[in-house]
Amino acid sequence: MMLTVRFFARLREQLACEVLELPCEPGLDTVAALRASLAARGPVWQQALEDQNVLMAVNQSLAEPATPLSAGDEVAFFPPVTGG
Amino acid sequence: MSTEGCRVQVQEAAFNPAQLQDLLPASGAVVTFTGNVRDMSAAGSVHALQLEHYPGMTERSLQAIASEATVRWSLRAVHILHRVGRIEAGESIVWVGVCADHRGEAFAACEFIMDALKTRAPFWKKEHGAQDARWVEARDSDISRAERWQLTRTGDAGMGPCG
Asked: What topology does CATH give the domain A2-78?
């Protein structure tokens, strides 16, 4: 089973990545663990994801670093929202 | 409140606020809010906005906000419409209509919905000026406005009748 990871707005542009399909490996059991794993992909990823303002969602609901992940989940990372 | 009383729409097409208001049910108090695209921002002149969103989460988030409003206040109807895609300066971008028996509930719910939408619903604005395009930065004042509602929160407002 896989994890789907989506990026939006400025983050999507910085990473030049809209969506990733990742194998749900042992250790990728929280949003924080996934974020750390993505940040290790390189300097651009590290810089984009170390921004403390970046928001996270799991299965289309806002999530916390400790929110657990399981196979098949859809995770998203994005900047603070600016609608309205 | 019945499920039909809560309505959320996310669309690219322009809308007419007067027509939307005509569709609201008869009630003692009707409060509506229309947000329009300004032609200036702190960063300079604005010709248009490009609105990105998170399809699926956007609708869920607006539905949850509408639902929370119906739990906190006694309302007859809530309608939220938000545009996405390219929106020219001067055009309307968001519309909220709230119906209640009395003005207090309608005013409060409408303001709450806009404050929650500004900080929770996954929309992102990119401003297009004469020469360039830039992402709009989130504002601390929007966060403070939304936090006021947490201070006055009475109990945990979970999913209401529209959830």
From this structure: Ubiquitin-like (UB roll) (3.10.20)
**Could B138 and A80 be called an inter-chain contact, meaning their C-beta atoms sit closer than 8 Å?**
yes
Using CA atoms, how far apart are residues B109 and B151, in angstroms rounded to an integer? Answer: 15
- ipTM of the complex model: 0.95
**Cα B57 from Cα B67, distance rounded (Å):** 15
8 Å CB contact between B117 and A84: yes
From chain A, the residues in CB contact with B82 under 8 A are 83-84
B52 contact residues in A (CB cutoff 8 A): 8-9
Contact A84 B60 (CB under 8 A): no
For chain A, 84 residues long, give each residue's pLDDT as a single digit of tens.
Answer: 899 999 999 999 999 999 999 998 889 999 999 999 999 999 999 999 999 999 999 999 999 999 999 999 999 999 999 999
B3-151 has which CATH code?
A: 3.90.1170.40
Q: Do A84 and B117 touch (CB under 8 A)?
A: yes
